[in-house]
Amino acid sequence: MLVLSRHVNQDIIIGDPKNPIAIIRICDVNGDKVRVGVIAAREIPVNRSEFFAEQAAKETAIATSNNTQEANHANLRNKNSEEAPALAVYPAIEFLAATRKARDRAAGRG
Fold first, then answer.
1. 65-106: pLDDT as tens digits
2. Pick from 92, 108, 109, 101: which is nearest to 45 by CA?
3. Together in a domain, 58 and 25
């Protein structure tokens, strides 16, 4: 991890300075809180880490609910069958994979 010290209105440039992936500007420092501004292309997701944790939890809850509903429907259809219900695709895993790809692109690794 690279740790940089910056003052208010100073920038951190991510990527090539002539064509940066993102620019992070220190907007304000108030006690133990730092306000930062991020300038990046719209296709680059920029969010707080808590956002991704909340999204992953929601996706997991939805996937669990969908799996339970699908399993119940499959059990009703296959009541006399010995076939196991098919596993559903987990949206949370797809979300995390997309997040990792975006992060790697932003870091210049893909």
1. 666 666 666 666 655 554 444 444 445 556 666 666 777 777
2. 101
3. no
Chain segment 19-64, per-residue pLDDT in tens: 999 999 999 999 999 999 999 988 888 888 787 778 777 778 777 7
Tell me how far apart the alpha carbons of residues 94 and 106 are, in angstroms, rounded to a whole number.
18
Residues 72 and 37 in one domain: no
Q: Could you tell me the two tokens for 93? A: 């895993």
Render 19-87 in DSSP notation, one character per residue.
EEEEEEEEEEEETTEEEEEEEE-TTS----HHHHHHHHHHHHHHHHHHHHHHHHHHHHHTTT--PPPPP
Residue 89 lies in a domain: yes
Task: Specify the amino acid at residue 36.
Answer: V
Is pTM beyond 0.85? Reply is no
**What is the token pair recorded at 5?**
């010290």
